[in-house]
Amino acid sequence: xxxxxxxxxxxxxxxxxxxxxxxxxxxxxxxxxxxxxxxxxxxxxxxxxxxxxxxxxxxxxxxx
Length: 64
Known about the structure:
The chain is of the alpha+beta class. The protein has helices at 44-52, 56-63; strands at residues 11-12, 24-27, 32-35, 40-42. It has two helices and four strands; from the N terminus they run ββββαα. It has a four-stranded antiparallel beta sheet with strand order 1-2-3-4. A hairpin with a 4-residue loop joins strand 3 and strand 4. It starts with 10 loop residues before the first strand and ends with a helix. The mean pLDDT is 94.
């Protein structure tokens, strides 16, 4: 996850909603990015699919 999302002081701007202040945080034990504002969590594959519009297959290939 940390290779896909840039965190500043432990937070990052969300792509899943309009975000004036960074709301995403990294849950390292679960390797997820969590957005408490919209109550969603993303693993690396979900990040690529949701943020970048990739298919599941494309997302997996780009992580290899």
